[in-house]
């Protein structure tokens, strides 16, 4: 199911200079803001939860997910170089699964790790807040990577759609329309985080069972469908 | 011995028919797929390579379907027309990756790079390569598993004459070894120099098939049309029509010129200046009016 060569190619494409800069910029910003907040307000659990929930989980994780998930396959399909993968005796689901693993790993490294660091800076993991949000980021990384990998496989405008979903749906609608929150990766991962932290600082609109079920279903379905789409991917000619 | 069979294959995109009911069999040796730009060559090659489903008909390799059959790529090597190819890798890394994806190792990659004579630049990034170097590395990646069928889409595009010759030698060698090699081109001379067998497609239809000499003859034996202006058009017309190499002349008053149709190209080209000299007529314009490749092709379609 996992092909190391496909993984190597994907890592190198994802962590190429330009994309690595974009991937690194947001986590850096989060760390800088955390240092500033800590310096200005001191260690405060509520503030820590606000920064990690509002900035890290609601904004940074989905954006990193978009970049890594769509970037793991979109550019290859766009420029046609995916032909070198497709013209091999490789099962299409193997290609997708491998790229998913890479996208998950990259999203986790560039979003969960900085979240943990920021949490430690903000309140030194008081009330388990840093760990809770890190777990949320890890869980969300998996679902986002799968969703955006599928998007990268089916659409040429994956980054735009991905950002619209991440910013408009997750961040804006999610905070305005209660129903939208049930269908939000962010809320699902918060349900898991709530379980870790306990207390009232980390809350979710969705129950833990519903959340985990939806996380698993979305990830599996997205991956399966991406494999299917890749199998019948039509490479447009030059004509 | 590998045979690629295209059986009543059509492909349309919406209302546009790109490939129209083509049937052909590609056997060992070098076959040229000739046709003007936009004729449907790439669409056909994409179907041969399993990257596009035929709308109707079937493409099979030794009886096995090509579409949705990943295992078929153990036999097929593909050199796509598009340039993009993991530019952030070095040539060697790229070919090694292709070998690994076939379950092969460094040795196969080294051999393939040697075959295309790219060892000298194998440690440079692909982004620094010239068009010809890219083409050769693409070749190496397609040859790494010693495929019995090699598909190349416009492989000579953008190559300089020396690179073109090298690649032709290489493809000839592949054909001599008994591999089935198919390449597409819109340039008659390329195909003529290299292919043992030619398939011509025009506007999505299979226009001609066979030995290049036969096709060449079809192309040169067709009526040639010329636009001629001279100091005495009517006297020239009378003298030309007396010769069997000319099949028709029209005096185009609006243009102030003769429209001459010649059936024997070779004979006509010597006849015209001779007749003009004998009759003391000055030739002002002699221009072939249908020399474009498209008109050659459309003649073939009608033939």
UniProtKB/TrEMBL annotation, chain A:
Protein name: ABC transporter permease
MF annotations from Gene Ontology: ABC-type transporter activity
Membrane-spanning ranges: 20-40, 52-74, 95-122, 128-151, 158-180, 206-226
UniProt keyword list: Membrane, Transmembrane, Transmembrane helix
GO cellular component: plasma membrane
Keyword Secreted annotated: no
Organism: Streptomyces adustus
Organism superkingdom: Bacteria
Pfam families: ABC2_membrane_2 (PF12679)
UniProtKB/TrEMBL annotation, chain B:
Keywords assigned: ATP-binding, Nucleotide-binding, Transport
UniProt KW Transport keyword: yes
SUPFAM superfamilies with a match to the protein in the record: P-loop containing nucleoside triphosphate hydrolases (SSF52540)
Gene3D superfamilies in the record: P-loop containing nucleotide triphosphate hydrolases
InterPro entries, A to Z: AAA+_ATPase, ABC_transporter-like_ATP-bd, ABC_transporter-like_CS, P-loop_NTPase
Pfam families for this protein: ABC_tran
GO molecular function: ATP binding; ATP hydrolysis activity
ABC transporter domain boundaries: 4-228
Record PANTHER family: ABC TRANSPORTER RELATED, ABC TRANSPORTER, ATP-BINDING PROTEIN
Assigned protein family: Belongs to the ABC transporter superfamily.
UniProt-recorded name of the protein: ABC transporter ATP-binding protein
Species of origin: Streptomyces adustus
Native organism taxonomy: Bacteria, Bacillati, Actinomycetota, Actinomycetes, Kitasatosporales
């Amino acid at each position: 199911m996992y092909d190391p060569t496909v993984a190597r190619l994907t890592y190198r494409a994802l962590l190429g200079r330009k994309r690595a800069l974009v991937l690194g910029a947001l986590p850096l910003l989060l760390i800088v803001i955390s240092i500033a907040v800590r310096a200005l307000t001191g260690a405060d659990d509520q503030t820590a939860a606000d920064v990690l929930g509002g900035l890290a989980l609601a904004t940074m994780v989905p954006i990193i997910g978009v970049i890594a998930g769509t970037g793991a396959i979109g550019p290859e399909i766009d420029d046609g170089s995916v032909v070198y993968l497709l013209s091999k005796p490789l099962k299409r689901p193997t290609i997708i699964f491998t790229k998913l693993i890479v996208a998950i790993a990259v999203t986790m490294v560039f979003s969960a790790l900085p979240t943990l660091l920021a949490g430690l800076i903000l309140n030194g993991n008081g009330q388990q807040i840093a760990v809770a949000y890190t777990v949320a980021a890890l869980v969300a990384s998996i679902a986002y990577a799968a969703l955006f990998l599928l998007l990268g496989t089916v659409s040429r405008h994956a980054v735009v759609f991905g950002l619209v979903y991440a910013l408009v749906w997750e961040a804006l609608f999610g905070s305005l329309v209660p129903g939208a929150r049930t269908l939000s990766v962010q809320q699902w991962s918060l349900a898991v985080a709530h379980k870790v932290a306990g207390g009232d600082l980390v809350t979710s609109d969705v129950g833990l069972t519903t959340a985990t079920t939806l996380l698993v279903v979305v990830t599996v379905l997205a991956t399966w469908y991406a494999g299917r789409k890749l199998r019948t991917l039509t490479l447009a000619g030059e004509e | 011995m590998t045979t690629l069979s295209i059986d009543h294959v059509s492909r349309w995109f919406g209302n546009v028919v790109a490939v129209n009911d083509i049937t052909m069999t590609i056997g060992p040796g070098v076959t040229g797929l000739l046709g003007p730009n936009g004729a449907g060559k790439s669409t056909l090659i994409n179907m041969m390579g399993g990257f596009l489903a035929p709308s109707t008909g079937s493409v099979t390799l030794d009886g096995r379907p090509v579409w949705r059959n990943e295992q078929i790529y153990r036999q097929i090597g593909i050199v796509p027309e598009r340039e993009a190819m993991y530019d952030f890798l070095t040539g060697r890394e790229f070919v090694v990756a292709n070998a690994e994806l076939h379950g092969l190792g460094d040795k196969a990659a080294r051999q393939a790079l040697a075959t295309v004579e790219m060892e000298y630049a194998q440690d440079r990034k692909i982004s620094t390569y010239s068009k010809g170097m890219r083409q050769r590395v693409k070749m190496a990646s397609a040859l790494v598993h010693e495929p019995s069928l090699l598909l190349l889409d416009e492989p000579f595009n953008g190559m300089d004459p020396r690179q073109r010759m090298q690649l032709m030698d290489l493809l000839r060698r592949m054909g001599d070894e008994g591999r089935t090699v198919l390449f597409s081109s819109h340039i008659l001379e390329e195909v003529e120099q290299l292919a043992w067998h030619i398939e011509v497609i025009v506007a999505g239809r299979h226009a001609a098939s066979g030995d290049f000499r036969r096709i060449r003859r079809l192309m040169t034996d067709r009526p040639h049309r010329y636009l001629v202006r001279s100091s005495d058009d009517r006297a020239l017309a009378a003298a030309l029509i007396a010769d069997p190499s000319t099949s028709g002349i029209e005096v185009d008053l609006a243009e102030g010129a003769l429209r001459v149709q010649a059936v024997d190209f070779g004979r006509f080209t010597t006849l015209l200046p001779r007749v003009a000299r004998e009759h003391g007529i000055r030739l002002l314009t002699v221009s072939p009016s249908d020399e474009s490749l498209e008109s050659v092709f459309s003649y073939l379609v009608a033939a």
